[in-house]
Design goal:
alpha/beta, 2 domains, seven-stranded parallel β-sheet, 28% helix, Alpha-Beta Plaits, Rossmann fold
Amino acid sequence: MTNTTRTVLIWLVSIFLALFSPFPILADDDVTFVLRVRPGALDRVVSEFDLEVEERIPGQNVFLVERDDDEEDESSFVDFLAAVRAHPDVLSFEINEAIVLPEEDDAILKPLVHDGPLSSLLGDRSYLSYYGGTAWTGYVRQPAAGKIGIAQMHQHGATGSGVVAVIDTGIDPVHPALAGALVPGYDFVTGSADMVSEIETVPSGVSSLLQQSTVAFLDGVPVTLNQRVSITLAQSTVAFLDGSKVPTSFGHGTMVAGIVRLTAPTSRIMPLRAFRADGTSDLFHIAQAIYHAAQNGATVINMSFSLPQESPELTQAINFATARNVVCVASVGNQGHAATVFPASLPNVIGVASVGARDQRSSFSNFGVPLVTVAAPGEGIVTTYPGGGYAAAWGTSYSTPFVAGAVAILASRSPNVTPDAADAAVRRATPLAAELGAGLLNLPLAVPRPQ
């Protein structure tokens, strides 16, 4: 790909994307439920409680159901939940929690957006070949990569293997840095195996600006899209971009996938779209994506999202995956306090916190043991962005794929790596404060050279 045909629109996206946090559902809303029943018992249960089946997770007796009659007060609703859960054929029954982005405190996080000159974040904007693709030099050689030893691993031939499933908002499948690294995924939002580009989730006028090939960064000015996103456009283009038409979580999946690609470039990425571009999803479709990953060859699952309480079905899905030697990695959340969030708090999940340039906990990162297994860089991370561009991002969402990529590197040395072995490997880290678990991810320690 030549310089005249590759996309040279360079973005600075200062995104403090929260990890997807549930909000309460009231009894008088259109409530759906996640139902697990004993084999052959579905008809009895739905008939007895006037339930309507909307979807099923393939290979599991797990169903998304809705009540035919939901006109009742809160007390009756609670009685209904208790009655279904007490039925002998019901193994679990829970509200299909809505999950929404964002969640962080702007007052805490916003000052970080403008720390330092833009050039110090973006670095070298030339292009180079990168494991069968074309990537921005500042992305490949960014400080975060050196901090955890990525180049050192690659020099010794440890570049990753297996499949990293990314449960997120989708991906830009034609991005020059990503296109050659993808395996078929699934869109659980639309129920389609077609890999729809994230760029198609914004209005055509906005997407055309994102895909321009003639805009140079040095001619750019910052443009605020919303409270968490600033991008850089040519001065002549600014007037044409309506930031209100860019969804708040647009690009999250492409950005997460870009960090996996940076870390483990010869592994493959399975994009599983469970979140819309506005950051909304629900428990059923996240569980559905976990099962799909486990049943379709994933080595590791990257989950850059969190819930404030444990879900029986989410736990069941992760247990299903880890029983098949699929390693699960999750972000610990961006509220900036000691917390218990899921799935990162589960004992068979590697929970990842964020640190900054000085190896101190990022102010937005949750912390504490047993939530945090290990930490990784999560401030000013340069990564891929829909439309062929690049972004700088902040959040535990972007620390997590460094660790998922580390597991893929480990798999290139130990093809049958187990979740326990992966956990032990990433704990061979550079010690930091006790609140950050084993410390900073250190790839040369985690993946020793063969004897």
